Amino acid sequence: MSGAPAPDRWDAEISIDLGAVDAFPDPGEPPPPTPRRPWLGLPPGRENVLLAYAAIVITLVAAAVALVKVSPLSRPLAEKTVAAYLEAVHDGDVDAAMSYTNLDEPVGDFMVPEALDDSWRIVKVAQVEYSENRVAGAAVALVYAEIEAEDGTRAGYRYRVGLENGRAEIENALMTADAYAAFDHLAINGVTVPVDRETGFVEVMLLPGVYRFYPDLPSTLEPDTEPRILALGTQFTMFGEEYADPWLPVPWMHATEEGQAAVEAALRAHFDGCAAEPSLELCPFTLPADPDRDVALAPGGAWEITAYPQVQVQWWWYEEGEGFTVVATVPGEARAQVVIVEGGQARLATVSCPIWTDGLTADLDFEGGVTIGEGPDGVDEQCRSLVEVG
Q1: What is the CA radius of gyration of the chain?
Q2: At which of 171, 197, 228 does a domain end?
Q3: Smallest Cα–Cα separation from 269: which of 287, 282, 256, 288?
Q4: Please, is 242 exposed, middle or buried when counting C-beta atoms within 10 Å of its C-beta (0-12, 13-18, 19+)?
Q5: N or C: which end of the chain has fewer CB within 10 A?
Q6: Is residue 133 in a domain?
Q7: What distance in Å separates the CA atoms of residue 194 and residue 205, rounded to the nearest whole number?
Q8: Is residue 44 in a domain?
Q9: Keywords assigned by UniProt (predicted)?
């Protein structure tokens, strides 16, 4: 059944035949798919191989770029300069190290290979800041460096590096520090420098590394703090500490048990000499004047030490050139037979005089010896109290 033609010839004709179901032939099996065209002319199935090769190439390129970035050969000039400076110091080449700084020559007695100790390592050197003046053709870079001692103590410092005309100089590599020494000399890593007697200190400049104060102390002395430091730039870090100090931490000294015993022995010898000859200097056995009577040693009489004072060496009362203050914790005693004249009558008596150590000092030398001397406040050379005991 079909519809009538449209009256207007310009209208589209529509034809519908619902009874023509069987009019179309059986399409049969669909044709096989057209094979895909191989990419770049490769045989089918080889595309994955090429992709894998491409991935490998990309990985290798990325690794090469990363290697270039971390390679010492690609370091900025400022960074290379600081690294070379530290390596020269570690190798003990002072002149080479100084060539990377803005200083013409080493300053001070400790800027010598003999004062260097290589028991440290370079942990890190990295440029952390950079600025340039294109008009002047110059630039400044900050390079952070970190070193470590054998015990794990670390020190970090930012070096300022000036760059101009392709040349780099470390501008803040070193500076002098005032060291107040406990003795008339300062000894660091085996190098000894005398202390200025007028100022009481010595100016010190130290290259990066490990330094030990007074390494050759006698067995009678020991430092009151850790005697080793890690120096880097203008900072000094004591071993075992986590902070740095711009002041050079020269340790003070204590008397060891052996030193304490040596001081006690020297004092016994001193007071024995005083007992035999009371008029000697620093002897406390001069009889005091008494307005009511006259007292004098009996003919042939002498002082006898019945007890020596118990003393303590005070390290915090130390005077360079004089030694440690000696404080009596328990006074000693000396006795003597005297003649007492009172009211025109003379009689024999035994008197007791306490032994104090006020004003005495003990200077412990580097040979293990002890010298008893006089402190800044002087010594009372007469018996402070006289008591008749028999």
Answers
A1: 46
A2: 171
A3: 282
A4: exposed
A5: N
A6: yes
A7: 15
A8: no
A9: Membrane, Transmembrane, Transmembrane helix
CA angle 54, 56, 58 (to 5 degrees): 70
Alpha carbon dihedral 73, 78, 80, 83, in 10-degree steps, equals -150
Alpha-carbon span 69 to 202, nearest angstrom: 45
**CATH classification of the domain holding 83:** 3.10.450.50
Instruction: Report which residue type is found at 295.
Output: V
Note whether residue 54 is domain-resident: no
Q: For residue 167, which amino acid is it? A: R
Q: What is the pLDDT along the chain (390 residues), one digit of tens a residue?
A: 444 444 343 343 333 333 344 433 444 555 555 454 444 444 555 445 445 555 554 454 444 333 333 334 457 999 999 999 999 999 999 999 999 999 977 778 999 999 999 999 999 999 999 999 887 789 999 999 999 999 999 999 999 999 998 899 999 999 999 888 878 899 999 999 998 878 878 899 999 999 999 999 999 999 989 999 999 999 999 999 999 999 999 998 899 999 999 999 999 999 999 999 998 999 999 998 888 899 999 998 899 999 999 999 987 667 666 788 999 999 999 999 999 999 889 999 999 999 999 999 999 999 999 999 998 888 989 998 899 996
Alpha-carbon span 209 to 262, nearest angstrom: 36
Residue after which a domain boundary falls, among 171, 190, 214: 171
SS3 279: coil
Distance CA 234, CA 215 (A): 23
Q: Which two tokens stand for residue 385?
A: 């109290």
- State which H helix or E strand residue 139 sits in: strand 138-149
Domain count, the chain: 3
